């Protein structure tokens, strides 16, 4: 979008986490030579990419850093020969702030955003080979009626629609408006597109439902010209419908409720009692209903808990509580009939 540029080639670049007991050099002393070889290569690649990006904008930047890896990146960029040459002739000034991603794990796994773009990117399956785009099931726009979720005869749609001004405008509102307003924007764009194509659309007021959007989408189905003219817009609205109907979206509110409860509880009690509250919620595959948390969900919750708590007082009580949670999780993972990709990586 106009305000946000993602660099998917560097999606795997994460600061090295300290070992058990915070072992390893202190953050202040770490330089590029102290990093593992793979991370050194990634940092140099990032510095080269950023220099090329700033050259396009004609920037003369001043670097600031928050976090150990960010300090290294900022220092490398400042001493990078091509960057020094560029700064001599660049016309525009800019302040660049580097921040370590690991300093806000609670933000990365939390569910506090009332944002449609975030939900679409979280729940729909990733477009193969892409880090920042999703697959949108296009079957609804065809005469082929199948209940197979993974129907692969029809190529999936996606969110990137650079050639469709209406779709680009709608994506901006998905990113910048609250979910309710964004869904209303989706309906408005659909109604305008249908009117332009003289499709028999009845404008309805009130709350927008995914079913209503589906009905509007189906008006385009047998009209090839209308489909071609508004293909980008239809992909974004289909992404909205599929996200709103997705079971993970209804679970979003459960996560949010648990996170709020956690924030209250942590203020009043210690980590062991919070872990003991979590324990009965860890259920094996055969015991779970669709509303229960999966093993992956628990990892997300645990990352949130430990990130929010910060410094934890260790002791026998905490060790015992953690051991129980570990055992319950291991049992649940072993009982999974098929491990999802994240759990395969972890195990």
Give a structural overview.
This protein is mainly α. It has 15 helices and two strands. The chain has helices spanning 37-57, 68-79, 81-89, 105-109, 116-123, 165-176, 179-196, 210-218, 224-229, 231-244, 247-268, 271-278, 295-309, 316-334, 341-346; strands spanning 59-66, 92-99. It has a two-stranded parallel sheet. α8 (210-218) runs antiparallel to α10 (231-244) and α11 (247-268) runs parallel beside α13 (295-309). The longest helix has 22 residues, at 247-268. Residues 1-23 form the signal peptide. Keywords: Signal.
Task: Explain the layout of strands and helices.
Layout: H1 37-57, E1 59-66, H2 68-79, H3 81-89, E2 92-99, H4 105-109, H5 116-123, H6 165-176, H7 179-196, H8 210-218, H9 224-229, H10 231-244, H11 247-268, H12 271-278, H13 295-309, H14 316-334, H15 341-346
Parallel strand pairs: 1-2
Helix pairs in contact: 1-2, 5-10, 6-7, 6-10, 7-10, 8-10, 11-13, 12-14
């Amino acid at each position: 979008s106009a305000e946000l540029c993602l660099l998917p080639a560097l999606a795997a670049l994460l600061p090295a986490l300290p070992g058990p007991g915070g072992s390893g050099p202190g953050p202040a002393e770490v330089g590029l030579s102290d990093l593992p070889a793979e991370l050194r290569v990634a940092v140099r690649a990032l510095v080269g990419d950023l220099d090329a990006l700033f050259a396009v904008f004609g920037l003369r930047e001043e670097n600031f850093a928050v976090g150990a890896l960010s300090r290294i990146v900022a220092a490398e960029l400042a001493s990078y020969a091509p960057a020094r040459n560029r700064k001599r002739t660049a016309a525009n000034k800019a302040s660049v702030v580097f921040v370590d991603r690991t300093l806000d794990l609670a933000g990365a796994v939390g569910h506090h955003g009332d944002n449609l773009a975030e939900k679409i990117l979280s729940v729909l399956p990733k477009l193969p080979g892409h880090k920042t785009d999703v697959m949108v099931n296009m079957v609804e726009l065809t005469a082929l009626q199948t209940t197979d979720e993974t129907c692969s005869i029809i190529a999936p749609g996606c969110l990137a629609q650079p050639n469709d001004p209406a779709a680009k405008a709608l994506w901006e509102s998905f990113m910048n408006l609250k979910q309710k307003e964004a869904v209303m924007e989706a309906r408005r764009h659909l109604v305008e597109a249908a009117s332009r194509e003289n499709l028999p659309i009845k404008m309805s007021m009130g709350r927008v439902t995914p079913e209503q959007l589906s009905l509007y989408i189906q008006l385009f189905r047998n009209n090839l010209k209308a489909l071609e003219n508004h293909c980008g817009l239809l992909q974004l609205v289909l992404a909205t419908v599929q996200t709103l109907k997705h079971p993970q979206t209804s679970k979003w509110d459960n996560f949010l409720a648990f996170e709020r409860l956690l924030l209250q509880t942590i203020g009043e009690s210690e980590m062991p009692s919070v872990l003991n509250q979590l324990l009965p919620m860890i259920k094996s595959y055969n015991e779970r209903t669709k509303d229960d948390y999966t093993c992956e969900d628990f990892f997300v919750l645990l990352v949130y808990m430990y990130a929010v708590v910060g410094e934890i007082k260790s002791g026998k009580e905490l060790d015992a509580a953690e051991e129980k949670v570990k055992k319950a999780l291991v049992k649940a993972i072993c009982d999974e009939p098929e491990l999802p990709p994240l759990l395969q990586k972890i195990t």
